[in-house]
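Retro notes, structure queue

What went well: the backlog is down to a handful. What didn't: a couple of records were mislabeled last round, so from now on we paste the full input next to the output in the thread. Example, using Histidine triad nucleotide-binding protein from Tychonema bourrellyi FEM_GT703:
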Amino acid sequence: MTNQETIFSKIISREIPADIVYEDDLALAFRDVNPQAPVHILVIPKQPIAKLADAEYGDRDLMGHLLLTVKLIAEQLGLSNGYRVVINNGNDGGQTVDHLHLHILGGRHMKWPPG
Ligand code: DGP
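Corresponding output:
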């Protein structure tokens, strides 16, 4: 875990704007500024966990909450035909913002393997 400030912590504090689609006491979700699909949402914990590899056993309720939040948002946005959930972890994973985030990608058919 880290207390490092990132662009996402500034979205949580409303220092910078975002198209927020969901919020509760533990999580925030907003549209990705550089969408890779017709629907591209980022779900983040308000707690500043830098990356999945930094999550600890004590974070298990929060991690489960994030996944169920993904499901809820996908339902609310009408992604009934399916969607992809992605967590980029660290450098080789292609992570560019050091605040854990779950990508929801939907609205088109996804290819496999990803690039
Ligand atoms: P990743 O590569 O997994 O670290 O994805 C980071 C994502 O964050 C990337 O798809 C672009 C998005 N992003 C970066 N800065 C901003 C921002 O200021 N606002 C929003 N809405 N999305 C951002």
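Agreed that this is the format going forward. Reviewer comment attached to the example: The chain has a mean pLDDT of 96.
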